[in-house]
Amino acid sequence: MSSTFCAISFIKNISKASKYTTGIAIYRAREDEFTEYKFKAFHSEPSPLLEEIWKNNIALIIDHFAIENDELNINKLKKFFFI
């Protein structure tokens, strides 16, 4: 089961392939709590609202998530916006 995820995140690490990009991002859950999660972004048609994900940038990430083995995983990422 998955739910909607929306967070302004720091892109810590990325790895690019021909059809998708995977990586690790971090968002601030509480004042002194930061959560690290894995993401997978599939390449889509060019749009003025979507930007390429780069390492060490901050982005607004919106999509569905799943908890697997007590880890947050963002799958089938469709929307990401740089701040």
Q: Tell me what the CATH architecture is.
A: Beta Barrel
Lateral arrangement of strands in the main beta sheet: 1-2-3-5-4
Q: Estimate the global geometry from the Cα principal axes.
A: globular
Q: Spell out the helices and strands N to C.
A: EEEEEE
> What is the CATH class designation?
Mainly Beta
Number of domains: 1
Residue-averaged pLDDT: 76
Give the % helix: under 10%
Proportion of residues in β-strands: over 45%
- The biggest beta sheet, please? 5 strands, mixed, barrel
Number of strands: 6
Kindly report the CATH topology: OB fold (Dihydrolipoamide Acetyltransferase, E2P)
Uncertain stretches: 77-83
Q: What is the number of helices?
A: 0
Secondary structure class reads mainly beta
- Whole-angstrom Rg: 12 Å
Structure report:
Strands 1-2-3-5-4 form a 5-stranded mixed beta barrel. By secondary structure, it is mainly beta. The termini are far apart. The chain contains no helices and 6 strands.
Question: Could you write a compact summary of the structure shown?
Answer:
The chain has 83 residues and is an all-beta fold. It has strands at 3-16, 20-30, 33-42, 58-68, 71-77, 79-82.
